[in-house]
TrEMBL record:
Protein name: alpha-amylase
Family: Belongs to the glycosyl hydrolase 13 family.
Domain of life: Eukaryota
Pfam family, one: Alpha-amylase
PANTHER family referenced in this protein's UniProt entry, alphabetically: ALPHA-AMYLASE 1 (PTHR10357:SF215), ALPHA-AMYLASE FAMILY MEMBER (PTHR10357)
Keywords (A to Z) from UniProt: Calcium, Carbohydrate metabolism, Disulfide bond, Glycoprotein, Glycosidase, Hydrolase, Metal-binding, Signal
GO aspect biological process, one term: carbohydrate catabolic process
Amino acid sequence: MAARSKLLALLPFLALSQAATSEEWRSRSIYQIVTDRFASPSDSASCPLGSTTYCGGTWQGIISKLDYVQSLGFDAVWISPTALNVEGSTEYGEAYHGYWTSDPTQLNSHFGNETDLKALSSALHSRGMYLMADIAINALSSASYTLSTDSLSAANDGTLLFKDPANYHDRCDIDYSDENSIRQCWLATGDDNGAVAMMDLKTEDDTVAGVLKDWIKEYAENYDIDGLRVDASRHMGTDFQHDLCAAAGIFCIGEIFEDNTSYVAGFQGDNALDATLGFPMKTGLVDTFTGSDTTSTLAGYISDAAQYYADPSVIGTFLDNHDLARVNSLTDDKTLVWNALVGQFLYGGIPIVYQGTEQDIADGDADPKNREALWNYNDYSTSGETFGRIQNLNKIRSGLGGADSSFYESVGWVLSQQDSDIAIKRGNALAVLTKRGGSGTGTWTVSGADFGNSASIVDLLSCDWSTTSDSGDITITWTAGQPFVYVTSDVASQAGLCQ
């Protein structure tokens, strides 16, 4: 009996060692980490703003801060690429970010060794958390751009995985109006001054694809990876990516750096990827709440998502990342960012928050300044306002999903909208967002929420209770441009929120 009890206690964690599917990832929320910039062993390594050299962050450093990540409410971590990269200084600095792959089958020793990466995976799983690994395999990188056997054999001290020129597409600049050019030309063509060349691989070739599929299967199994973030998905064929992810046997989400929803959605499906990162929705949220666009911009992206995605409930929603300007660098008004965060979490999909957003980091208006060392900010404080807001959003999302699992399968739709304000209904919840700003006041009556007449409702962000009108309308009253997330008292009780 004792042995059986121990086995039952281990079942939730044993399940994590099996292949994680879209259905299992759908309920997760992800904290994005650039390994070199998240946590160093000493928490005091020198790393000036805009540094393009290694600063000392490691996989062991991540392990040491998992309490911090988990206290935010995240149950998955996405780490930057683990692969062996171009070594030494280049015209653009060092490969601290991990995206200048030389050999994906080897690890980047700057971050640790095989034991360290396995320890990170194990530490996450022991907490019931998932590990998502970033892979950058559309190209191999070198400070030389010459496609010859001698040059490829010598590049990166002989560490390039593919040394046959026939494994690469010819060097050319990308013409983004031509899909063949997007798939076959180079993201970076290099130069004679030491600039890194990203030599595009023929992933459509059976030899190249076979090597990469064999590697990804072993990689996922060896390090017990739960999901993959596929870098530069736009620059590889969907058939190859589907087969690669099938070989890994785990959830894959691809990066298609484009805000056209119909185009991005073409990379998701039965013969493509499980999901894509939500660049279009990011544009809708950020342009609406930090720019001059009215809420009709966001409403348009929400409509497009419903129309084009095969499954919008697993798109990765985010406001910024390691390649983009930090959302806090685009506005000084934290209330506008707060509204955008609520929109991100309550619209649907899998929310992703980039390290440092919780600390209100606003320095990063562009790469490399948006890859700040987190240890330089607030000593990993857990008491800040935005930290608490993200923590609460994860709690609300988990509570609503725990009370009704179909909540995770749903996405929001626009119930009502006017220039500065938008009401988004998702399942049993109503999110009301505004771009009035931190000093914004006013009222707005929203009809059609279907909460009932004279019904008791609560805003889950403030836990303030109110009542719908005798015709079921909700009167929104702004005192400081704040967002709202309304549910009925019954739903709040079932979700264990605001009790």
